[in-house]
Design a protein that fits this description.
Helix content: 25-40%
Largest sheet: 4 strands, parallel
Shape: globular
Distance between the termini: 36 Å
Structural class: alpha/beta
Length: about 160
């Protein structure tokens, strides 16, 4: 059983919430979201926001808050093999209530199919926009295609 140990990033000005499924092994090692160097999250989101791509954890956190973006994951704990979403079993979901009550979230987005399916399963009555996964496992989407798809964020920030 693996447990989510990364605190959500948000503040009272956060307008969009981006939810992944569960942190990768690299993200768990760096103790921050999208820590694998091959994950395209930071490249995509910085291109969409027209900003420099953050490098350090401090820069990434500041980037998110500056752009009114909250980030967390759907899963609090699960059985997982490495970083493989397809291996996820025995899910305990995160409670999104604190983020939603303490911020100004207008729209929830999910990063990939697994995050979207699990979000809908554990958050009945809530809606989210599914975006294509920024994971390197999503080979069907090149960087430019991801950036184009993720431009949906701009309508809510």
């Amino acid at each position: 059983m693996e447990f989510h140990t990364i605190e959500p990033v948000f503040d009272e000005n956060s307008k969009i919430l981006i939810l992944g499924s569960f942190p990768s092994v690299k993200s768990r090692e760096t103790n921050f979201f999208y820590g694998h160097p091959q994950n395209r999250f930071w490249k995509v989101i910085s291109a969409v926001m027209g900003d420099e791509c953050p490098i350090t954890v401090e820069e990434k956190r500041a980037f998110l808050l500056k752009n009114n973006i909250a980030v967390w994951d759907v899963i609090q704990s699960c059985d997982i093999e490495g970083s493989s979403d397809s291996s996820i079993k025995n899910v305990t979901p995160n409670d999104l209530k604190n983020i939603l009550e303490q911020s100004d979230i207008k729209r929830i987005f999910t990063n990939g199919n697994t995050a979207h399916k699990l979000f809908l399963k554990y958050n009945s009555g809530m809606d989210a926009i599914k975006l294509p996964s920024t994971s390197p496992a999503n080979a069907a989407f090149g960087l430019e295609r991801l950036i184009e798809s993720w431009k949906a964020l701009k309508n809510f920030t």
